[in-house]
Write a structure and sequence with these properties.
Elements lengths: L11 E9 L8 E7 L5 E3 L21 H11 L11 E5 L5 H8 L3 E5 L3 H11 L3 E2 L10 E7 L8 H11 E12 L4 H6 L13 E2 L2 H10 L2 E9 L3 H12 L4 H6 L1 H10 L4 E8 L1
Parallel strand pairs: 4-5, 4-7, 5-6, 7-8
Antiparallel strand pairs: 1-2, 2-3, 3-9, 8-11, 10-11
Helix pairs in contact: 7-9
Length: 276
């Protein structure tokens, strides 16, 4: 039975029906609904074969030097990269690039992935610890926890915030970067919006919802900032014109995306807070 991932209510209204997986083009179509209580837009039903939609997930592949440079130039500003010390946990660490970068800058970096087999494989690849499961976090404390475009992938996002709060030291920081379903970019492209990404993106917390969720879990000094991301336009144009992620349209859309994101800056946002 459906229950809202923010407030738990069961009433909802349709937003998008029958949206395909345009990124990997795997079979199936997916429905997004809006909770009539709190307004959270979310996947109505998580498919039983969700793991299949991560099988060749680009974010899990190791970056080439060119792609790594492209990432830095286009979306590097979205990440809290900077020198520091203490332990850092990157929840949903993808291919581990952020962990390696933060380790290089003086942090003691840990990744976290829900899939235990993938976590073990990634740890061997990047040479850093990648944890999996709540038990792996018991007895550990961190100075920072990051959700770098991973929060929207979670079927139980508020439980993940609670877990993050439980292992952060007092005064520790949290950083959550997510797509913005209320953005002008999302409204323009609708179900062709690149950051919709069904079925991997499960829920879309608004700035208000995420701020409230952080405060409930004991965080204060919450700050929110927009994240202009050029890949939003590039991917959305590709989906609209070709119905899929077409390489020529994708790379050709990056430069217009850079111009677009200078003016339409709200396609994604980040919330940062400190544990009280």
């Amino acid at each position: 039975m459906f229950a809202c991932r923010n407030c738990g209510l069961t009433d909802r209204s349709p937003v998008y029906r029958g949206v395909p997986d345009r990124f990997h083009r795997l079979p199936g179509s997916f429905d997004y609904v809006r909770c009539t209580g709190c307004g959270l837009v979310q996947l109505e039903t998580v498919p039983a074969n969700l793991a299949d939609h991560y099988g060749d997930y680009r974010v899990h592949a190791q970056d080439s030097r060119v792609y790594h440079l492209l990432r830095k130039l286009t979306i590097g500003h979205c990440y809290p990269v900077g020198p520091g010390h203490g332990a850092l946990l990157d929840y949903g660490c993808g291919n581990g690039w952020f962990c390696r970068e933060m380790q290089r800058l003086g942090w003691q970096a840990f990744g976290y992935e829900p899939d235990a087999a993938y976590a073990r494989s990634l740890a061997d690849t990047i040479g850093l610890p990648v944890l999996s499961g709540e038990e792996s976090l018991r007895g550990r404390t961190f100075a920072m926890v990051t959700f770098n475009f991973s929060f929207e992938h979670l079927d139980r996002p508020k439980e993940a915030l609670r877990l993050a709060a439980s292992c952060l030291e007092p005064g520790g920081r949290i950083h959550v970067a997510v797509p913005n379903i209320e953005s002008r970019e999302a409204r323009v492209f609708g179900e062709h919006w690149f950051h919709l990404d069904p079925p991997r993106h499960i829920s879309f917390f608004t700035k208000r919802m995420l701020t409230e969720a952080l405060e409930v879990e004991g965080f204060g000094e919450v700050s929110v900032r927009d994240l202009p991301v050029p890949t939003g336009l590039a991917g959305s144009l590709s989906y609209k014109l070709a119905g899929r992620l077409h390489p020529a349209l994708w790379y050709g859309g990056i430069l217009p995306g850079l111009a677009w994101s200078r003016f339409v800056r709200d396609g994604n946002f980040a919330a940062a807070a400190i544990k009280r």
